[in-house]
Each structure stands twice: as structure tokens, then as C-alpha cells.
Amino acid sequence: MSFPTPDEARALHEKYAPTREAFDLVHGHCEIVARIAEQLLPRTGERLDAGLVRAGALLHDIGVYRLYDGAGRLDHRSYIRHGVLGHEILRAEGFPEYLCRFCSCHTGVGLTEDDIRRQQLPLPVADYVAGTPEEQLVMYADKFHSKSTPPRFLSAAEYAEYVQRFGQDKVDAFHALRARFGEPDLGVTTRTAASAALPAPRSCAADTPSRSRA
Ligand SMILES: [Fe+2]
Fold it and tell me: Is 208 helix (H, G, I), strand (E, B) or coil?
């Protein structure tokens, strides 16, 4: 099993980012998610592939770049599509399905066919649910940082409150992940991510505000 190194993941971000601002926001977020996942990895007691977790975390949001218009504005209404768009990008780059799935299967705590039909989401009707432990860890780690304006960390309690609007089953799924992987020390992550002092972009309330999902 092979996957991109951090430098190769960064090069992919540079290739697809329409602006420096978008790159800083999305790549910075992906680096933070990778650090959170790395921090939680030893606590799982499970045998996960650390390199795959890192590569998946570093690339999971690459589809967000496809949602910027020519003026550098993010299409928030279509944000839910960023996962499948990222899957398409990685597939077109020749990466295997097990890597592409980090993009399509990290939204919220998983999107099911039923979610898509009931909420009439603009996605091909299918299950987009993290399957492998590596996918599940990246999806979970992603819930602790938002590309909002300005970008910020979220506690487990804040995410649980946020996801309540999508149903109790989503809250329960989040708590199951929390029990399995534990909660990250976001203070440590903040300090180690000092270089990721993310700028406050003008219009990127990307991950968790309103009804969009991480
Ligand atoms: Fe994300």
C-alpha cells in the first residue's frame, strides 16, 4: 500500500488551490486534522496504518478547491459536494480507491442513502460512510477543527451540539467515535500548529457553520 508523502500532498493542494488564501485555509486545516489524528492514533489500541491516516487527513478536503468561483469565492450552498469532488480529483490523479474514499466518506459522521434522499442533498444517492478504521479516525479528527471565519477548534461538546440538528442518530454516532478514539488535547494541537496561524479569510465559513458539515 503506498500513499503520498506530506510534501506530495502539499504539492497536490498547490496544484488545485485557486488562490493562496484558499490554499492556506484548506491545507492549513488538513494539516491540523492530520495532527489531531496523529495524536489520537496511539490511544485507539487498534492497529491502524499511520501513514495512511496521515495521507488521508492531508488530502480529505482537497475537493473544496473545486467550489471556488473565478473571483475566489466559495460556493457554500454546494459545500456538501466537496467530498465527492475530492474523490474525483484523487481518482483522476491515479490514486487508489482506498485513498479517494477519505474525501467522499468524511462528511459529518457519515452520510447514508437515506440522509441524501430525506434531505434532498445534491449528491449521487449512495452511502458515504467511513468504513476502515483509518477513514473513521480521519472523519472523527476532522470534527475538531472548522474552516469557519475565522478558522477555529471545536470541542467534542460543541460538535455534539452542532450535529444534533441532523438527528439523534448522528449524535449517537459521534459519541460512539468519541468513546472509541477519545478526545484530543486541542491545546497541544494549537501549540504544535503554531505555524498554522490561519489567516481569517473573507468568505470561508466552510466546515461546520449553518447547515453545512465538516
Ligand atoms: Fe475537513
Answer: coil
